[in-house]
Design brief:
The structure is a single chain. The chain has one domain: Alpha-Beta Complex (Nucleoside Triphosphate Pyrophosphohydrolase), CATH 3.90.79.10. About 20% of the residues lie in helices and about 30% in strands. Strand 1 and strand 2 form a beta hairpin.
Length: about 150
């Protein structure tokens, strides 16, 4: 069944909001932020947020990483695009998720994050949105990259 097309009064398509998330793994720990605002107030999540007008996804993920954690990074690779219309209770969104790396610093919460910290990758808290699926997919991707192909 094809999705219904919706347009605004100006005839522009109504589309999902575009977001980005950063997957920053260092020394066996994943950088997470505690959400300052609803939805999922107080829950942990990957650093990320909305792409601003005139901004690329690549610039947005590095900006969000810096604003929410104080960390600077560089993109390693695209991990995936997550677009389940139910992933965000505020409405449909599509998130572009990047693996990032950089100098590991003391994490500090800022902007939309009340707190930021490094969590052991094998003992993560319950995550907001669909971030548990993103982390599970990233684990699989990282495992495949380490396993030699025969």
């Amino acid at each position: 069944m094809a999705a219904r097309s919706h347009t605004s009064k100006r005839g522009r398509p109504l589309t999902p909001a575009l977001t980005v998330d950063a997957f920053f793994l260092s020394r066996g720990e994943l950088l997470l932020v505690r959400r300052r605002y609803p939805p999922f107030l107080g829950r942990w999540a990957l650093p990320g947020g909305f792409v601003e007008l005139g901004e690329s996804c690549e610039s947005a993920v590095l900006r969000e990483l810096q604003e929410e954690t104080g960390s600077h990074g560089r993109i390693v690779r695209l991990l995936g695009v997550y677009s389940d219309p139910r992933r965000d209770p505020r409405g449909p969104s599509a998130s572009v998720v990047y693996q990032v790396t950089g100098r590991r610093t003391v994490a500090r919460g800022g902007d939309d994050a009340s707190e930021a910290r490094w969590w052991p990758f094998d003992r993560l808290p319950t995550l907001a949105f669909d971030h548990e699926k993103i982390v599970a997919d990233a684990r699989t991707t990282l495992r495949r990259r380490r396993t030699p192909r025969s």
